[in-house]
Write a structure and sequence with these properties.
Two copies of one chain form a homodimer. Chain A has nine helices and ten strands. With 208 residues, the first copy, chain A, is of the alpha/beta class. Chain A has two domains: 70 residues, Winged helix-like DNA-binding domain superfamily/Winged helix DNA-binding domain (Arc Repressor Mutant, subunit A), CATH 1.10.10.10; 112 residues, Rossmann fold. Chain A binds a DNA duplex (22 and 22 nucleotides) through α3 and β2.
Chain lengths: 208, 208
DNA sequence: ACGTGTGAATTATTTCACAGCT
DNA sequence: AGCTGTGAAATAATTCACACGT
């Protein structure tokens, strides 16, 4: 390959955040360099895979010396567009939505929950400093607050409708907590979080 | 292939719960049969993949007629060991742990949270009818209550220690909410839930 | 001597395409 | 006519292995 690589496999993209996370950990331990061997050990993967993954984007290492952690981190964060903050909103202010809003892990990584929406006008209030607005005001808020990511925490039956509206509002990414597979246009990306599916996959192995 | 197939790819196992979920949805709509074509449409995958996935386990369909939903569901649920309930425990009774305990989706699918553990003796009490016990009593409770799955909701720094203890207590499956990749012996299975990783992968596509 | 970057080889996964049953 | 189950073919992903720079 020569310069800029096109159409990188999704499976590779999905591993990059793991590298970022582990490099952050190493940095906190005052490490300055790391080899693909060591990174592979920490992530229980092969050095070859790590080097191959990086090779899609450029040459980040030094032969005989490994990778400079600060440099590699910055490169990976740039590739993933993490060197900026992203404005998000939560749709569904029930128990799950409240838990998501109260979770501090998003903000820590630059994903800011700017507003929440719910159909019920009863629970219009604040959750952990996040205003809860009527779902009818979605379009206005998403545009005014430059929100690019929607976090869906409504019941399964309502999720497709909510997602359709989000897409119409110009949302570019959806994190879907509803246990269903939404239909999404292919200029919008979507990741699904369903711990029950994980438990069910796991159950296959539990009797072995 | 002939009778019982060995060593089925994990990627296949991970898709089975999606089929189960969708078949349940169809059942609620009073459908009695489904083709791989239709199931593929609902899950945005190819009919060939679905048929190939099933073929690892047997012949569940009828040529020219598709699959009987009740029959297929029962077969898939048996393969995944879902036709029973699983006892679980939650380790970490902080905000995240409380949210997990309050989430009704686990019980609905047969994953029963029988007890929670925490180091802090201050918060020893009940969360949604689930007793919170000291982490020092873990071994005793896991054995007495026949708990096979541990749901880890402690901070990242404590997770490996907790997981090591769970493994020593004979736990067979771990659902890990801590944002780290634990070291696990290979007779124990582990699935990780980290919504931040999903957002970070998604961010790659948001500028495209 | 160490460890990256990368073509080539290997292995895994998906898709094709069609014989055969209902 | 419709649709499964499955070998064969095609594509994708991983791993090997080594030339080469530090």
């Amino acid at each position: 390959m020569n310069d800029i690589e096109h159409d990188i496999p999704e499976i590779v993209i999905n591993r990059l955040p793991l590298y970022v996370r582990t490099l952050n950990d190493l940095k906190l331990l005052n490490q300055t360099t790391v080899s693909s061997e060591h990174l592979g050990f920490l992530l229980q993967t092969t050095p070859a895979q790590i080097r191959k993954d990086f090779s899609h984007f450029g040459k980040f290492g030094k032969q005989g010396r490994g990778y400079n952690i600060d440099f590699l981190l910055d490169e990976l964060r740039n590739i993933l567009n993490l060197n900026k903050t992203w404005n998000t909103c939560v749709i569904g202010a029930g128990k799950l939505g409240q838990a998501v809003i109260n979770y501090q892990g998003f903000k820590k990584e630059g994903y800011l929950i700017k507003v929440a929406f719910d159909i019920s006008t009863k629970k219009l209030s604040n959750i952990n400093d996040v205003e809860v607005r009527s779902i009818s005001e979605m379009n206005q808020y998403i545009k005014e607050l430059n929100i690019k990511i929607g976090i869906v925490t409504v019941p399964s039956a309502d999720a497709q409708g909510v997602i359709d509206r989000l897409v119409q509002c110009g949302i570019k990414g959806i994190l879907n907590y509803a246990p269903m597979k939404p239909m999404i246009p292919n200029n919008v990306s979507c990741m699904n979080i369903d711990p029950v599916l994980s438990l069910q996959s796991m159950s296959y192995y539990l009797d072995k």
